[in-house]
Amino acid sequence: MGFFSIDTLITIAAAIFTLGILILIHELGHFMVARMVGIRVERFSIGMPPRFLSIQNKVDGLWIKLFIPWFIQRIANATTIEFRIPRKNPKAGDTEYALSWTPFGGYVKMSGMIDESMDGEITGKPWEFTSKKRWQQLLTISGGVIMNALLAFFIFTAIIYSSGMDEPVEGTFVGSLVSTEEREVFPAEEAGIMENDQIVMINGQSVTEWEELTGIVHDQPGKIISVEWLRNGIRYSDSITVVKETVPTAEGVVDIGMIGIGRVTEHTDLGFVEAVSFGARSTYMFGTLMARGFWSMVTGATSMDQVGGPIMIAKMAGDMARRGWLDVFYFMAIISVNLAFVNILPIPGLDGGHFIIISIEGIIRRPLPLNVKLIIQQVGMLFLLGMVLFITIQDISRL
What one-character-per-residue DSSP string does 341-361 give? Predict the structure, then answer.
């Protein structure tokens, strides 16, 4: 399979679409809150420098600037090309809207906010970030995280409202045979169990409810159990070795036993209120799963080998795209929750790092020295770059 195969192009397009939307929404959160509390936004960029194109309202019209790449600046004898689109009743704007070359990224440059880039200055003007009250600064820093959480909530709600959901049917009839990429055939299928069969007994114990069935199986990872089932009135039985699977739950990641069967379900449509409730529960569930997974890595309970980065996200986005757009958006919602959680971590260079610094300044009632904040942010950025490099190498090794 060549690099320019259809599958590769789908993966690249899905990754750019997914990450591009998530980053746009995140930065839009910072932008909207900054404007709401009166902070001047000097630049709103999609993508990371160098800039490719920028647009800005000025008193004499709409100005468009094209930035020439450094390797052809000498040939073009220029670094930028500018042209103006005249407009009736033009109104000057403070913000330069830019499109930059690196698609996986974005930033909002606010007046009076000097970060690890050391770009900008503090003059004490009322529209600067540092001139605002602490709660306004904290709200602005949290804007991206809030927007990512809201995006996930809206996607989960829209998907379930438009497509409905499958509700389980009472009983112990087999509705489906499970398969995964790691295990195409599970023990139940190997033993001859088929869809529409009714499981009636496990280890000599009669079962009439699905919860009874799964309760017994989940407690037997790696063990051999006896299973009896009915098909067209004929009773079958066999001994089955239960496989151990690691699955995420609301209580954390746990090991359970599985034989590879799913229950019968029926499709039902949900009303708006029910869909909103489902969207909120899904956002909370994936957020808590991310938090528990992160804590498991911190404590060493989970290996860092389980961590995925941009390359793994791109691969998964491509897989979802081949399955359909609904899966792409569902995957986007999950990643949006994860992005919100990661950004709020108290690590310098992330939104959570800025949040902690602002909170400390509020407690001590004075700003930290500028050089101290810059050192903290730069150390944090080095840590993050190291983590990205490590995770990327992990991703490549798994391809």
Answer: HHHHSS-TTSHHHHHHHHHHH
Q: What are the CA-CA distances from residue 207 to residues 64, 66, 77 (Å)?
A: 71, 70, 81
Q: How far is CA 344 from CA 134, 354, 399, in A?
A: 17, 9, 30
What CA–CA distance (Å, rounded) separates 87 from 95? 17
Using a 10 angstrom Cβ sphere, with 0-12 exposed, 13-18 middle and 19 or more buried, the burial of residue 90 is middle
Amino acid at 340: A
Contacts of 45 (CB under 8 A, 6+ apart): 27, 51, 97, 98, 99, 100, 106, 107, 108, 109
Q: Can you list the domains of the chain with their CATH numbers?
A: 130-164+273-399 (no CATH), 166-267 (2.30.42.10)
Phi and psi at residue 169, to the nearest 5°: -95, 140
| DSSP calls for 146-192 | HHHHHHHHHHHHHHHHHH-EEEEPSSSBEEEE---SS-SS-HHHHTT
Model-wide pTM > 0.85 = no
The answer, yes or no, to whether residue 340 has pLDDT greater than 50, is yes
- What letter represents residue 165's amino acid? M
86, two tokens: 């005249």
The owner of tokens 């094209």 is 66
145-202: pLDDT as tens digits: 999 999 999 999 999 998 888 888 888 999 888 877 677 788 888 889 999 999 999 9
Going by the DSSP 8-state scheme, the letter that residue 397 receives in this structure is H
H/E element holding 376?
helix 370-398
pLDDT tens-place string over residues 199-217: 999 998 999 999 999 889 9
**Do the Cβ atoms of 116 and 377 come closer than 8 Å?**
yes
How many angstroms separate the Cα of 347 from the Cα of each of 209, 283, 389? Answer: 48, 23, 17
Handedness of CA 282, 287, 293, 299 (dihedral sign): negative
